[in-house]
Amino acid sequence: MAAIVIVMAVCWIFEVLPIAVTSLFPIFLFPLFGILDAKDTAVFYGKEIIFLFLGGLMLAQGIQQSNLHQRLALRIVSVIGSKPAHLILGFMITTAFLSMWISNTATVMVMMPIGISIIEELKTGITNDNKKLISRFAVALMLCIAYAADIGGMATVIGTMPNMIFIEMYQTIFPDKAAIGFTQWMMMGLPIAITFIITGWLLLTKIIYRMPKDNLLKSNDVVKSQLHGLGKITRDEALSGLVFFMAAVLWITGSDLRLSETFTIQGWRTVFGLEMATDATIAIAAATLLFLIPSKKREGEMLLKWSHVQQLPWGVLLL
Description:
Number of domains: 2
Strand content: under 5%
Radius of gyration: 22 Å
Order of helices and strands: HHHHHHHHHHHHHEEHHHH
Shape: globular
Number of strands: 2
Distance between the termini: 17 Å
Low-confidence stretches: none
Helix content: 55-70%
Strand order of the largest sheet: 1-2
Oligomer: single chain
C-alpha cells in the first residue's frame, strides 16, 4: 500500500503521466496486490462529494454562459471608487466572492481583463513622475487577484477542490462522526477568508506596495464604461442567477444550526423529514434545472447544454 502511494506521489509531483491518469492507478494496482478488489475500489470514484463538486461546476458554467459573473464583477468594482487602495480592496472582495462559487481559474479569467483594462487606461497620459506609481499599482493589482482567488475558495465547500478532498477523506476516515455540511464549513471558512482578505489588503497597500490616497485619473470610468456596454440585465442572467441563488440558500439552510445547548435552528431537512437529501442532491437538481430552462440569448437552446459541461475539468473529478 505504502509503495503504491509513493509511486503515485512521484508521478503526480513530476507529472510522469497526466494527473488524472495517475489517479486511476488504484483501480488496477489494488486488486493486483490484494489490497482491495476492483468493485470496492471503484466505489471511491463515485462518492457523494464528487457529485456535489460536479453539480457546483455545472452551476458555475451556467453563470459563465449567461455572462452574469462579469456583470457582478464590474458592478462590485464600480461601487468601490478609483483610489488605489480602494480599487485593490474592491478587486479582492469581488474576486474572493466569485471564487466562493466558481473555480479559481474562471474567477481569475473574469477579473484579469478588467484589471488589465484599468492599468492600460492609467498608462495613457501619465507623467514620468507617475510611472513608478502606476507600475507599483499594476503589480499589486495582479497579485491581489491571484491571492483573493485562493482565499475566496476557502470560504465554501465548493470553492476549491482541496476542500472537497478534505471532506471526502474526513468522511472516509471518520464515518461515524458528524458530517460537515455546507453551513458548518461556511461558519469556519468565511471568517478565515475575511481575515485573510483584510490582512492581504493591508500588506499589499500599506506595507509592500504603499498606495497614495489620491484618485488614479479616471480609472473607475473604465469599469463603468464596460458595465454600461453590457446593457440591462438579460433574462438568461436573471434566471441562471436565480437558480444559483436558490441552490445557495438550500445549501446554507439545510443543516441544523446549534446556537447553544438549549437552542437549535432546524434546517429544512429536519423540518420536512428529508434527511436523505444531501448537498449533492441540491447541486445536481439545480444543475438539471439549467438544462430545462430555455435560453433567450441562444434561440432553440437551454441555459446549459452538454457541450458546456464537456468543458469542465473532468480530470480533477477523478482525483
